[in-house]
Design goal:
353 residues; alpha+beta; Thrombin, subunit H; Pdz3 Domain; 2 domains; 7-stranded antiparallel beta sheet; 8 helices; 37% strand; protease; PDZ; Serine endoprotease DegS; EC 3.4.21.107
């Protein structure tokens, strides 16, 4: 009995010791998991964005005569909207969503430290719903750029933004999925899906990893109510930085282009065509004189690989080609009349949308 009491007493003493060792003198726990360090690194780089748009509409009045007179002129209405953005360099460049600032007459950026400035639009990209802004303020803190490709499903992430105009807020979640596409939100879709809450006003904000590094731009939610339902979508930082670099360097985003339309190949279509291949894309249209036409490709050819990398969907093929440099020669593997073949094409520049 005495021996057992000694064991219990020893366990209690050990537990108490661990409890006190786990706390500093200021009663702050040191062994409790926290994202505070990551937030401290990233939060100063995330800005709140407020836009103003002036629209004109007919004026109304209860007085019939006054109403008839006022209907002859237009009244200006001031519309306000909000969103978020991420500072990405010392020169004041900010990445946000195009839908946040679209048609705005004035864009006000409010920084983490309380300063504010009017922003100018450097450029936009409809194909990804991204926009690049710039403000003129000193001592900015650009975001640390991370690597979204290194993120795994199940990794912790944090979303930082300005939901409903409350001011900067942080929510936590995990990477729920990667490479989401086919949502018909943008031409180029390769979303990171997360259950970190993203709400109205959070668009354009930061998705960061546990080290405070920027891995995505929060862009949209999948919801039937308009509120967060655990399905948030962020644009990978690799796509966002390409848009930023190209807009600053060329004034627009430069993407590779083959000049064709495709649809995905599935088992049903493969059976109709009498082939065993179930992955790839079928060419449905070719622009005359375009790179695909010059390479000898035809409608109903099945593209199965680009530069020896297998193509499983139209969106995947679109992204692969878009990320290649125009003027570059690529190898295209395809099936025609049941026979495998290959050709080479010189990529063109995708026409602006």
């Amino acid at each position: 009995m005495k021996f057992s009491h000694m064991i219990i007493a020893g366990l209690l003493i050990g537990a108490l010791a661990a409890f006190f060792v786990g706390y500093k003198g200021d009663s702050t726990p040191t062994n409790v998991p926290t994202f505070a360090n990551a937030v401290a690194i990233a939060a100063p780089s995330v800005a709140n964005i407020y836009t103003t748009k002036h629209s004109e509409q007919p004026a109304t009045s209860a007085d019939s005569y006054a109403s008839r007179q006022r209907q002859k002129r237009l009244q200006t209405r001031r519309e306000l909207s909000l969103g978020s953005g991420v500072i990405v360099d010392d020169a004041g460049l900010i990445i946000t969503n195009l839908h946040v600032i679209k048609d705005a007459d004035e864009i006000l950026v409010l920084l983490y430290d309380g300063r504010n400035a009017l922003a100018r639009v450097v450029g936009t990209d409809r194909a990804t719903d991204l926009a690049i802004l710039q403000i003129d303020l000193p001592n900015l803190k650009p975001a640390k750029i991370g690597n979204s490709e290194a993120m795994r499903v199940g990794d912790w992430v944090l979303a930082i933004g300005n939901p409903y105009g409350f001011g900067q807020s942080v929510t936590a979640g995990i990477v729920s999925a990667k490479g989401r596409y086919g949502l018909n939100l943008n031409t180029y879709e390769d979303y990171i899906q997360t259950d970190a809450s993203i709400n109205v006003g959070s668009s354009g904000g930061a998705l960061i990893n546990g080290y405070g590094e920027l891995i995505g731009i929060n862009s949209a939610i999948y919801s039937q109510t308009g509120g967060s339902t655990g399905i948030g979508l962020a644009i990978p930082i690799e796509i966002a930085t390409k848009v930023l670099t190209d807009i600053v360097r060329y004034g627009q985003v430069i993407r590779g282009w083959l000049g064709l339309d495709v649809t995905g190949l599935n088992r049903v279509i493969a059976a109709q065509l009498g082939i065993d291949q179930t992955s790839g894309v079928i060419i449905t249209d070719i622009q005359r004189g375009g790179p695909a036409d010059k390479a000898g490709l035809r409608i109903d050819d099945i593209i199965i690989a680009i530069n020896k990398e297998q193509i499983t969907s139209g969106q995947e093929g679109l992204l692969k080609v878009a990320n290649l440099e125009p003027g570059k020669e690529i190898e295209i593997g395809f099936i025609r009349d049941g026979k495998r073949s290959k050709t080479h094409a010189i990529l063109g520049i995708r026409p602006p949308q």
